[in-house]
Structures are given as C-alpha cells and as structure tokens.
Amino acid sequence: MKIVTIGVYGYTEEAFSQALQAAQIDSFCDIRQRRGVRGARYAFANSQRLQKRLAQMGIRYLHRKDLAPTTAVRQRQQEADKANKTAKRQRAALGQTFIQAYREEILADFQPQSLLNDLEPDAKVIALFCVEREPAACHRPLAAEKLQQTLGWQVEHLTP
Prior knowledge:
The chain is of the alpha/beta class and 160 residues long. The protein has one domain. It has six helices and five strands, in the order E-H-E-H-E-H-H-H-E-H-E. The chain has helices at 13-22, 47-56, 71-84, 96-107, 112-118, 140-151, and strands at 2-6, 27-30, 60-63, 125-129, 154-157. Helix 3 (71-84) packs antiparallel against helix 4 (96-107).
C-alpha cells in the first residue's frame, strides 16, 4: 500500500487528473471538512464535480471528515497566520500550535484500521486530498505520517 498526498492549488483540472493517473491512484480520500473551493479556477475540486471526474477515471472516492481539522483547530492556524501576517495561500508551513492540536485532537483518536475497512480489498495507492499546494502547509502529511507509522505504508507528496 502507498499513500500519495495532493492539494489542488497550483493545478489545472487537466494537470490534476494527469497527476492522479501518473501516480496510479485507485482510491481518493478527501480529508477536507468543507468539500468546496471558492472561485472558478478550482471549481473542479468541488465535491460533486470531483466525484464525477474520479468515477470517470475509475478512482474510488471516500470522504473522511474524521481526518479533517475541526474549526477550532483551523482557528489556531488562522491566529498564527494573522500574527505572522501571512495569507493562507502564501503559507509555507503549518504552525506548531496547529500541528500539536491536530495530533492531539484528531490523530490521537484516529484508528488507521478504520480507513483500511473503508477501502476496497484491491486498493493499492490512496490519495489523501486537501487544498494547499505545499504539503508542509497542510494537515495531509500529518495524517499520512500516522498511517506510515502505524501501517508501514510508503508516502509520496505530489505538487504541481
């Protein structure tokens, strides 16, 4: 089994689809709390449209809201961004308060076996998806790290 992490920012719809195909993704795990993206440029990543495109590509879709940061956890990052005068899309890395809160409030209760139970038996390459371009600026590598530590899965981070 292999985990691939991917965000949407920086991709065109075509390049995003090509990246998924090149990585041989068979299962797509959306770990966003809210499954929409503002603006026409990234409308292809809005849940219904995304699910339709993935189905056309033969990729199974899962939404795992239990891996999404809660509003309270996200608020900690917003406070750090404000203090550092950093726009969300310009952030290069998550703050330590967010990382600690995500690990304590989300990952501490997450049971990796529950993800395995949601996958088809033939799943081999699973994408963890959120929006941020840079893995270090997103929670998806933290979730991938937990899966790697617990299940021994290989992890690769895709960027545009």
